[in-house]
Amino acid sequence: MEAAMQYALIIYEEPGYLDALPEEEREAAFADYRALAEDPRYAGGAQLQPVETATGVRVSGGRTLVTDGPFADTKEVLGGFCLVEAADLDEAIELAARVPAARLGGVVEIRPVGRL
């Protein structure tokens, strides 16, 4: 069997989507996130603080420009990420499908992780 490859599961969600769920569904979603974190293929990840806490940094003409807020004004925002180890893209897709945001109106983008 080939060595596992790392994939980033990049989670885009509508802000507050979990808060809008009935308590039972919200608890089930949290349980699904915990179960994914306990999967042996899970290598790390984090939930990000609300988009209002974002700071953007650009360098233009040798000057550092800092702006408050997200890079783009969109309905869905980057809410978190998971780093997983999977044999192939099909296995990474199976893991991404377990992310509650994927079934609750968001999307999970999968990207192979390169080495620096």
Name a few traits of the molecule.
alpha+beta; two-stranded antiparallel ribbon; 116 residues; single chain
Describe this structure in words.
The protein has 116 residues and is α+β, with helices and mostly antiparallel strands. It is 24% helix and 37% strand. It has helices at residues 23-38, 89-96, 100-103; strands spanning 5-13, 42-47, 55-60, 63-68, 77-86, 107-112. The strands form two sheets. The chain has a four-stranded antiparallel sheet. The chain has a two-stranded antiparallel ribbon with strand order 3-4. It is flat and about 45 Å long. The chain starts with a strand and ends with a strand.
Report the order of strands and helices.
EHEEEEHHE
Number of strands: 6
Strand order of the largest sheet: 2-5-1-6
Q: What separation lies between the terminal Cα atoms?
A: 25 Å
Q: Any idea what the shape is?
A: flat
Based on secondary structure, the structural category is alpha+beta
Strand % is: 35-45%
Number of helices: 3
Largest sheet: 4 strands, antiparallel
Residue windows where pLDDT falls under 50 for at least 5 positions: none
The percent range for helix content is 10-25%
Overall radius of gyration:
16 Å
Mean pLDDT: 90
InterPro entries: Dimeric_a/b-barrel (IPR011008), YCII (IPR005545)
Family: Belongs to the YciI family.
Pfam families: YCII
Domain YCII-related: 5-113
